[in-house]
């Protein structure tokens, strides 16, 4: 007895779509495991955050991790395109300090992991003078050139070095304005974000539901108070920046000699 024609087997000629979906699901699971979906109490929600929310549970907003993953991938793609330009990591609140330092060290990038000094971008010429002063004093100390001063004078110089390191130590390698900023908690670092906006410097921002997403060109809507979540996103951005450096090495901007 025949019950109809057997169904044809569906063969995937190109499994790239399947692979992409699998990777996205894996990334979403990683975000979930890091607690990236937890936002803040609904009472603290900024209107611009509504687009990135899945819902509310026990009066706490929950991020839509599919949207978070899409935004994170867009941020990674942008950072990978920064070939030849620097990325400044910024995060001064206690949940972010160590993650920002570690990510910047991994990526070989400048960073601010303390209080943002007003004018760091908009008054960079004068800020650079302070950084040059720091570099000069450290070089002189390393070469033993401070021995010509009295003990009290050396003590004062050491104190100056410590103060300059605390304020500008992460910026020593930044000879010019950065090509972009990566900011942890754009509300906490609103001065840095506004300076970047003023100068037309793109901002990649890890932002929770209390942040103004309209100020950030590449927002990553996720938990910015969880150390695991912050560390995860910082690491992803650092990896993307390393890729931009590798692409710069592979494709140097040099004209080919004519035969």
Name some characteristics of this structure.
single chain, 259 residues, alpha/beta, Rossmann fold, Helix Hairpins, 5-stranded parallel beta sheet, 3-stranded antiparallel beta sheet, 7 helices, 45% helix, disordered C terminus, ribosomal protein
Can you give me a brief rundown of this structure?
The protein is an alpha/beta fold.
Write a structural description.
- This protein is an alpha/beta fold and 259 residues long.
- Helices cover 45% and strands 13% of the residues.
- The strands form two sheets. A five-stranded parallel β-sheet has the order 5-4-6-7-8, sandwiched between helices. A three-stranded antiparallel β-sheet has the order 1-3-2.
- GO terms for molecular function: structural constituent of ribosome.
- Keywords: Ribonucleoprotein, Ribosomal protein.
- InterPro entries: Ribosomal_uS2 (IPR001865), Ribosomal_uS2_bac/mit/plastid (IPR005706), Ribosomal_uS2_CS (IPR018130), Ribosomal_uS2_flav_dom_sf (IPR023591).
- This is Small ribosomal subunit protein uS2.
CATH fold naming of the largest domain: Rossmann fold
How many beta-strand runs?
A: 8
The CATH architecture of the largest domain is 3-Layer(aba) Sandwich
CATH superfamily of the largest domain, by name, is Glucose-6-phosphate isomerase like protein, domain 1
Q: Judging from the principal axes of the Cα atoms, what is the shape?
A: elongated
Strand content: 5-15%
Q: Mean pLDDT score, rounded?
A: 90
- H/E element order: HEEEHEHEHHEHEEH
Tally of individual helices: 7
Gap between N and C termini, in Å? 75 Å
Q: Structural class, from helix and strand content?
A: alpha/beta
What is the CATH level 1 assignment of the largest domain? Alpha Beta
Gyration radius, in Å: 23 Å
Q: Any idea how many domains?
A: 2
Give the fraction of residues assigned to helices.
Answer: 40-55%
Record the strand order, biggest sheet: 5-4-6-7-8
Largest sheet geometry: 5 strands, parallel
Uncertain segments are 5-12, 254-259
Protein name: Small ribosomal subunit protein uS2
Keywords: Ribonucleoprotein, Ribosomal protein
GO cellular component, one term: cytosolic small ribosomal subunit
Family: Belongs to the universal ribosomal protein uS2 family.
């Amino acid at each position: 007895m025949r019950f109809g024609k057997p169904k044809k087997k569906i063969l995937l000629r190109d499994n790239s779509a399947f692979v992409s979906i699998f990777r996205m699901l894996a990334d979403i699971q990683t975000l979930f495991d890091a607690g990236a979906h937890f936002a803040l109490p609904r009472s603290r929600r900024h209107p611009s955050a509504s687009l990135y929310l899945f819902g509310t549970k026990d009066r706490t907003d929950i991020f839509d991790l599919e949207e978070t993953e899409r935004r994170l991938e867009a941020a990674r793609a942008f950072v990978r395109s920064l070939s030849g330009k620097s990325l400044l990591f910024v995060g001064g609140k206690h949940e972010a300090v160590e993650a920002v330092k570690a990510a910047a060290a991994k990526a070989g990038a400048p960073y601010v992991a303390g209080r943002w000094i007003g004018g760091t971008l908009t008054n960079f010429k004068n800020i650079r003078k302070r950084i040059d002063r720091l570099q000069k004093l450290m070089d002189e100390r390393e070469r033993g050139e401070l021995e010509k001063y009295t003990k009290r004078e050396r003590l004062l110089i050491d104190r100056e070095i410590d103060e300059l390191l605390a304020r500008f130590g992460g910026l020593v390698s930044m000879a010019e304005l950065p090509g972009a900023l990566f900011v942890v908690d754009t509300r906490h670092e609103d001065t840095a974000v506004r300076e970047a906006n003023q100068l037309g410097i793109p901002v990649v921002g890890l932002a929770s539901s209390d942040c103004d997403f309209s100020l950030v060109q590449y927002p990553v809507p996720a938990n910015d108070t969880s150390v695991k979540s912050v560390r995860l996103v910082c690491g992803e951005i650092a990896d993307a920046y390393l890729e931009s450096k590798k692409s710069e090495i592979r494709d140097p901007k040099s004209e080919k000699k004519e035969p």
